[in-house]
Write a structure and sequence with these properties.
The complex is a heterodimer of chains A (about 550) and B (about 350).
Chain A (H helix, E strand, L loop, with lengths): L1 H7 L16 E5 L3 H4 L1 H12 L3 E5 L12 E3 L6 H14 L5 H7 E2 L1 H9 L3 H8 L3 H13 L4 E4 L1 H4 L4 H14 L10 E3 L6 H6 L6 E2 L3 E2 L3 H11 L11 H10 L4 E5 L3 H4 L3 H10 L2 E6 L11 E4 L8 E4 L4 E5 L12 H11 L9 H12 L16 E2 L24 E2 L18 E6 L17 H4 L4 E4 L1 H7 L6 E5 L4 E8 L7 E5 L12 E4 L6 E2 L3 E7 L1
Chain B lengths: L4 E4 L2 E4 L6 H7 L23 E4 L6 E2 L10 E3 L3 H16 L15 H8 L23 E3 L9 H9 L5 E4 L6 E4 L15 H5 L5 E3 L12 E6 L8 E7 L2 E7 L12 H5 L14 E3 L5 E3 L2 H19 L4 E5 L5 H15 L4 E3 L4
Parallel strand pairs in B: 1-5, 15-16
Antiparallel strand pairs in B: 1-2, 3-4, 3-5, 6-9, 7-8, 10-11, 11-12, 13-14
The chains are: A alpha/beta (about 550), B alpha+beta (about 350).
Bound molecules: iron/sulfur cluster (3 copies).
The site of one iron/sulfur cluster has 12 residues of chain B, from α3.
Amino acid sequence: MAGLAASFGSGAMTNSFAEFDQAKLLLVIGSNTTEAHPVAGAFIKRAVQKGAQLIVVDPRFTGIAEHAQTFVPIKVGSDVAFLNGLMHVIIKENLQDQAYVDAHTTGFNELKAKVAEYTPKKAAKIAGISEELLVRVARQVASVKPAMLIYTLGITEHTCGVNNVRSCANLQMLLGNVGYDCGGVNPLRGQNNVQGACDMGALPNVYPGYQKVEDKAARAKFEEAWGVKLPKKNGLMMPQMFEGMADGSIKALWVFGENLANTEPDIRHVEHCLESVEFLICNDIFPTETTRFADVIFPAAAWSEDDGTFSNSERRVQRVRKAVEPPGEAKPNWWIFREVAARLGKEWKSKSGQEIWDKEVSKLAPALGGIKYSRLENDGLQWPCPDTKHSGTTCLHKDGCFTCGMGNFQALDWTPPAEVPDKKYPLVLSTGRRLYHYHTRTQTGRCGGLNDLLGQETADISLADAALLGVADGDLVRVSSRRGQVVVKAKVTPQVPQGMVWMAFHFREGNANWLTNPVYDPISLTAEYKACAVKVEKA
Amino acid sequence: MAKPTLTLNGKVVEFEPGQTILQVAQAVGVEIPTLCYLKDATPTGACRICLVEVKGARTLVASCAMPAGNGMEIQTDSQAVHTSRRLNIELLLASGSHNCLTCEKNGDCKLQALAYRYGITDIRFAGQTQQYPKDESNPLIVRDFSRCILCGRCVQACNDLQVNRAIGYGYRGAASKIVTTGDRPYQESDCVFCGQCVEACPVGALTEKKAVGLARSWETKQVRTTCPYCGVGCQMWLHVKDGRVVKVTAVEDAQPNRGMLCVKGRFGYDFIHSPERLTTPLIKGEDGQHHPATWDQALDFVAKRLKEIKKKHGADAIAGVSCARSINEDSYNMQKLFRGVIGTNNIDHCART
Ligand code: SF4
Ligand code: SF4
Ligand code: SF4
């Protein structure tokens, strides 16, 4: 988000899913698409079936990699070096789109000087691949226009996540691929409504529609609309909230629908924070590891029990409809917030999802101005959609006209993950999602059939490491880091390269977040889920 | 350049070069029944139901596979077409064991609908006795080969739409059957349980196991919604009976998923009906246990505590984490509460996981 916004002026997926199977070349980086976004993965596979070229860059030989003509097994956390290496080759061989660069971007000379340092030899060494492969990939991506770049959390969940994203943007601007159908830079969102939560201003520095808290005019606009005085300074991001709980400056925390005690890095630390905060409120549909600590739990209406909207990765606002009644006394979340506001002295007018959207959100966020419930009956609308005559936007920055005027190249250096393997913890742990479950399984764990397909966590290790450790598939292993340890079954698989352990965070038992490192990207404060040092022993 | 034209049931219509006869007919609203035709996949012409008469052609032609030609004269419902379709339907019915009473697909079956429409009242050919046992070995999909008409839609859905390449035609002649590699059970094969084969099956050969016995198709109401799992945002139908979601299917032709779903979207709905749902507000007592409370008690208590904390430590001592899975309107109201009522910008969400 922060990375793309800095480069282009907008942080969302630039293009649309409808273009995936039309694309001629797709570069997929750090995305386990077939498991995390299966339908998007299907479109990519369909493109390949129709003759598109697919390059997959990932430390693991993932399901989507099986469909690629070119698989690039870079080392965990080496993305910036790898991408700089590609750009080095592209510029050296004069394969960039110089006309586009001149017309639509700034900072090319700085970028050129920086990537000049990343010779194929140096970049390939950091990435752990051959020079020949790096040069070949550089030429391949430059050979087709436009080429589409797709990435997921493999890019963002690092201490250098923002730089990873900016490097993706650099590459695509250099090749003149941003602003065209079947091109662009396309982050696939992990959760269904991350895009929407950002659009709605559930962020400490922006109001709905990315209007800045620190901007006086924006603040005045919301003060008028809501009839209140608004605080002037940016609020805390989640990791800072945790710090605040630990040091006692945060006294009350309201957790809406998130099972923080399993999803955040270093579970022990998180639980300590949740335990020490003076007053904890939770809205949820199930009791979770997090609600255990709550002083008050509000029972919430679930998906399909309330009317509203989600915004998907391609900025499409879509209707979510009520099909059944919530159980017992469970209530919609918006109603709960409204009731508390009333008890704190503010009566809000909007009494339904539709009223909140039509009368507030779409009036206050310019990019959503033309989106009304009455226009969302079928396929929804993609923002920006400024007025009710507008049919929405499938491709951002059309023809290189960036939201911020000019696209900004950022000259960036590669930095290693915060914790690298050493003698004591010789392997890299990387984490992610598996096909049959979702997050901490509060939902999928309660769906018939899905647990039968995948009933427990495993630690995926390479054949080579398994042999070294004397571990066979299905053996119990102890995986430990500086923060904790878990005992899980080993899954010995050719998907994983030597030196890596791969785990998910779906189950409490054997949850990778007992091990992960709570260190964050300095700008986005995204945690480094994708790299920490561990050791594995036979249990 | 003028568009090419053809005559369809006596009417002259324009078409785009490259369209099949079936596509031309669909575009102008003339219905040609099909069984095996699957949009976005290569036509196979396997079921012979979409036959039409083209003037000058020696035999009837499969409209799903035949490209439209300039000047063609086509009859979609002539006597010859009717007779031939009727015969093909009878043969399909006879090739398996079709006791609709015991079939999950009853009421939503394309073969049943065709038999009714073409006035088939009794089965002329000797019915086959059940050839294969029902395969109920996996947790999500029931496979009943005695009802399979070998139209191949599931094979196309798996290979051409989802590109999972888990199933194909196996064996030969009368023993012909749709199989996974090595004819293994689904869960031991490359199958990833997207259920696209079930969605594509026009008859009762592939059905959702979790939906068995819960509702006949005519008893359900269908509600369109958006999948609650990943950021693709697939469009789906919730099939609802008596306040319960009994089944989920994809919305055909809708963006962004164009008729596809994955295992989570298709089979991950029943958590909402779990007996473990929270159904009443809970307040932690002196004993450290959660006790049921009324809404007023819980809301008043929260308001009181927030006021106290704000008064003593300032609004910035309060922080909120919103939900990246819930609807926009919930997140909007939460940030409005924090900013406009509590008076802090300490509001964030798990954007980062
Ligand atoms: S598949 Fe169709 S025709 Fe056959 S038994 Fe089922 S409902 Fe009847
Ligand atoms: S469930 Fe999906 S992967 Fe499995 S056979 Fe059916 S279409 Fe193929
Ligand atoms: S059906 Fe699958 S791919 Fe589609 S939104 Fe749901 S989880 Fe994502």
